[in-house]
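Q: How would the structure tokens look for this protein?
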Amino acid sequence: MTIPFNFQLSERQDSGSFDSLHWMAYRLADRRILVDLTGIVLLGLRGSGDWVRQTLRVDVYGGKVEPLLSLGPAEQGHHWVIQPVMWSVAAAPASIFNRNTAVNAGWAVDTCNTEWDLGEPASSGDLLDDVSLYLNLAVRDTDGILYRITYDFRAVGNLHQERDIVVE
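A: Here is the predicted structure in token form.
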């Protein structure tokens, strides 16, 4: 399934577009793990006389929580996976700007979803890899700019090992 978007920022590839990254993870009962990833994305989305609407795909990296979990080495030929079971995500404007008089100006995060909310099977997800968030953003006013948005992603997942895929 392909989820449409207008532009993409990846924490691992576009690190200069991310700020105030915070993360935590801890073990729950029954081999479940709680993961919390937060941060600010630097944008610069400009408005016009009418609403400018764009879908931003934000790839946040969950692998940075692995050292907090003291998982130890996986069995030979395997790697650790945290398969998402339940999650929540939120995003909001964090910094807006308007150069002159604001006339019918507006800035918004209309929707915020994970790839699993939009139809990708959660069974294929891994909280220790990139988690894709899809944010429908909007700016209105000829000199209005949405400079930053903040996001908060929380999930509970099942910890297990998967066999490495060998490509020959």
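The longest strand covers residues 78-98.

The chain is about 0% helix and 60% strand.

Upvote if useful.
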